[in-house]
Amino acid sequence: VNSSQPRLTSTAPDALPDTSPSTLSLQQVLAQALDKTQNLSEARITQILAHKLPAQPEALDFASVWPLAAYSLERASQVQAASPEAQQRLLARLARGRFVEAYQIEKAGMSFAAKMSLLAESIAEQKLYSLFASEEAQHFHFIQGVLGDDLPNDKDPFITLLHELITHAPRRPLQFMIQVVLEGWGIEHYTLMMKACQHPGVRPALQRILQDEASHHSSGVALFAEADLSPAEATYTLEMMQHFLQLVSIGPVSVLQAVHEELGGLSQAQQAVFWDETQAKSETRHKLDLLQNLMHKAQAHKLLARLQAQDAFALRC
Ligand SMILES: [Fe+2]
Ligand SMILES: [Fe+2]
Questions:
Q1: Could you tell me the distance, in angstroms and rounded to a whole number, from the CA of residue 160 to the centre of ligand 1?
Q2: pTM for the full model?
Q3: What was the pLDDT predicted at 19?
């Protein structure tokens, strides 16, 4: 037997599962064998990572991590009228939703840092993004541990936008959209999550993530120069900002959706009351103002002026 022959062929009879060929196609059998190989290699990688990363947290009672006030729900009459059990279910769902979102964001953060490292224009820049990649991997490791085996693959419109950016955006628009805008936005989001967190194991981890995100954001502000964007890059950045602002301007719809589904459905009139009681409009206004301030801080004056001229920072809720 030629020693360069593919290993799968020579070991196939032992490696293949004991299944009748008449019920499984060759592709299915190969896919099963490949799965097994990948799982073995994943188990080895997990062992190696265990020496490099801290132990992941114990399983959490999601409902205990944040109180109703962390979602501006403390004055919502429909929530106050719900049974304690229903309130706990709602709190658990909302907390899990935050971790699921963080899971997707930190996973995207690892890909972002790797892409920016490959696109770097100097060795110093490559070092910077390689350090970011390590930090994002640590953030991801923590969030993955919190979620345990219940790992998400659902994508909301925000995560879809994030994936579009990381897959297709060139270096400079990526620097602006991810580091300046989304990581700047993330600082506020993680700060609110950290301050209201009631869980002693989660709070310090959020604090650590927050510190790292603040440094990722500030380096983005320092490195970005609007004048360096080509006309095509400026147009692309503008389009992506328009998408993002649309998602923000419609208000906290995922919280509304969770209340709607967990507490048995809200009528149109109840939804309007809910919007008032949770101060959805003023909180959304604050978020849109924050995004304008981030653009101002990065001196993205032309992009900001074009978005303002299109009324892209207007409330739509
Ligand atoms: Fe991160
Ligand atoms: Fe980051």
A1: 17
A2: 0.85
A3: 44
